[in-house]
Structures are given as structure tokens and as C-alpha cells.
Specification:
This protein is of the alpha+beta class. It has eight helices and eight strands. The strands form three sheets. It has a three-stranded antiparallel beta sheet. A hairpin with a 5-residue loop joins β6 (67-77) and β7. It is rod-shaped and about 180 Å long.
């Protein structure tokens, strides 16, 4: 009985192992290569798959997701014989698991070496300044060459990035000095432009201010002259409307004499000849208005208006003049 039990146990174990080898579960975004007696049979996709146990074998499991591979810095010589170290990053994706397994031994190593050689060919035709400023051009050229070369391997290169471009230390120091000098030059130019613009704006402002001030003074003088002319015209019209005689003019002149004499610089007075005649007439009138004029030794009668003398001269009382 014991040998039979042992055989049954062995059979159960073999059946269990066969079931395990028969059922293959492939994760999502993955693929598996199946070989039968060492020859490619089919590719297993994601999900539950059944294979022939002990006949079919899983050769390789491949991740179909996009992969990111950074490569170490590579020394590259530019067109002007300067050595620069360039770090690259490759974004790729396996599109054909069979080709990635059988067309190349190690597609990661193949992509790295292809990237280095292509990068040296591209950078060798550029000088240092163009290399530092043409990353997009270098990335596009690298991607085109890699995508074409890796297509037959079942690999699609989605993106190539230059992570860093490091020139020699001496060149970095020279570049820093050059950039500092350029910044100082631009700062000096901007400062000079600012001072120049400020001077121009100040001059324009002063010019506009002077023009406006002159226009204001001209308008004020014109208005002042117009006002004086109007005042003179009004006085002239008033005098003609009142029909003033020489006595009134002389009297007005006498009233203005104190105001004329107020100034310290008034050393000379100009008196028109007509004023003298007017003053004579005014003095004669004032003499006639004198109540004491014509009185002799006798007294006149109060209400009769006749003089006490025998000359027969009639004297009339004149009203006082304000």
C-alpha cells in the first residue's frame, strides 16, 4: 500500500505543478514571449492565458509602459575643440515585444550607445555657443535618428532631453565674466537712456511752461490794455456827455496834484498850457464868489439888495460852492 500512496502523492504534485504551469496571468501593460522547444510560438497579452505545461515556456516578460532612462555624462568635442559633458534622458516605449526580444540582445545598452555616437556627430558640427543655445535642435536631431534606428527593434523613442551641458571650468569662468560685462554694459546704456529721456522731458516741460506763461502774460496785457482803453473811453464819453468847461477841468487837476506828488521819483511835473488858462478863470471865479469883495466903509441894507454907496452897483448873494 505504501508504494501506491507514494505514487498517488507524486501524481497529485505533478498535476498541481502542471496546473500552475498551464495557467499564466499577465499583468496589465505587460507582455510575455512563449517558446515551444526553444522556438517562438506566440506573445501572451494581459489577462489569463493557458499554455501547454512542460512544452511551452515563458522566455521573457516585457513592460509595455513608457520608460525613462537617464544616461551618465558623456564627453563630447565641439567644432571649436572644446570638451563638454552632456547628460541625456531618453523616453522610450516597447511597441513590439517579439522584436525587442529577438532583434537585439539588450535594447537599453543599444539605445545608450546609439545616443552617444549620434550626439557626438551632432555636437561635432557645432561650436560651443551654438551648442549651449540649440538644445531644441539637438533634441529633435537625436530623436529622429534614434526613432529610425530603434524602429526595427520594436522600440519607439518618444522624447530625448539634454539634462545638462557642462563646459570646462575655465570656459565657465570666461563666460561668467563676459555675461557680467554684458550686463554692466546694458545697465549703463539703460541708465544713460533714462537720463537722456528725463532731460528731454524736463526741457519739453520747461518749454511748454514758458509758452503757456508767455501766452498768459500776453493775454493779461491785452485784457489790461483793453480795460484801460475802455476806462478812458468811458471817461471821455462821460466828460463829453456832461459838457464840462475849463473851470471843472482845472478843479479836477487840482484834486489830482497830491496823488501825482506822492511818488519819490516825481521830480518834474508837466503842466499843459490849457491848465494855466483854466486856473486863471477858476481864480477869477473864486474872487467873484468872495463875500468880502466890494465892501467899503458903509454897510449895505439886508433885504433890499441895494448898496449903500452912490455908485449904483447892484450886488447879489451867490450860493456857496461845495
Amino acid at each position: 500500500m505504501q508504494p501506491i500512496i507514494i505514487v498517488l502523492i507524486i501524481l497529485v504534485v505533478l498535476v498541481f505543478i502542471a496546473l500552475i504551469k498551464t495557467i499564466q496571468v499577465i499583468p496589465q501593460a505587460s507582455a510575455a514571449i512563449v517558446e515551444r522547444f526553444g522556438r517562438y510560438t506566440r506573445t501572451l497579452n494581459a489577462g489569463l492565458n493557458i499554455v501547454v505545461p512542460f512544452i511551452d515556456s515563458i522566455r521573457n516578460r516585457i513592460d509595455l509602459r513608457e520608460q525613462v532612462v537617464p544616461f551618465p555624462p558623456q564627453p563630447v568635442i565641439t567644432q571649436d575643440n572644446l570638451v563638454v559633458n552632456i547628460d541625456t534622458v531618453i523616453y522610450y516605449q516597447v511597441t513590439d515585444a517579439r522584436a525587442a526580444t529577438y532583434e537585439v540582445a539588450s535594447y537599453i545598452q543599444a539605445i545608450e550607445q546609439l545616443t552617444v555616437t549620434t550626439l557626438r556627430n551632432i555636437i561635432g558640427g557645432m561650436d560651443l555657443e551654438r551648442t549651449l543655445t540649440s538644445r531644441e535642435e539637438i533634441n529633435a536631431a537625436l530623436r529622429g535618428v534614434l526613432d529610425e534606428a530603434t524602429g526595427k527593434w520594436g522600440i519607439r523613442v518618444n522624447r530625448v532631453e539634454l539634462k545638462a551641458i557642462e563646459p570646462p571650468t575655465s570656459i565657465q569662468d570666461s563666460m561668467e565674466k563676459q555675461m557680467r560685462a554684458d550686463r554692466d554694459k546694458r545697465a549703463a546704456i539703460l541708465t544713460a537712456e533714462g537720463i537722456r529721456q528725463s532731460a528731454i522731458l524736463t526741457a519739453e516741460g520747461e518749454k511748454q511752461s514758458a509758452i503757456l506763461r508767455a501766452e498768459g502774460e500776453a493775454k493779461a496785457a491785452a485784457l489790461r490794455a483793453e480795460g484801460e482803453a475802455q476806462a478812458i473811453r468811458t471817461v471821455f464819453e462821460s466828460i463829453h456827455a456832461g459838457d464840462a468847461d475849463q473851470k471843472l477841468l482845472a478843479y479836477q487837476y487840482l484834486q489830482m496834484l497830491p496823488k501825482i506828488a506822492e511818488g519819490d521819483a516825481n521830480k518834474l511835473w508837466i503842466v499843459p498850457s490849457e491848465i494855466g488858462d483854466a486856473l486863471k478863470g477858476l481864480s477869477g471865479a473864486m474872487g467873484n464868489f468872495n463875500p468880502m469883495a466890494g465892501m467899503g466903509g458903509g454897510s449895505g441894507s439886508g433885504s433890499s439888495g441895494k448898496s449903500g454907496g452912490g455908485n449904483g452897483t447892484e450886488r447879489r448873494e451867490q450860493p456857496p460852492i461845495d
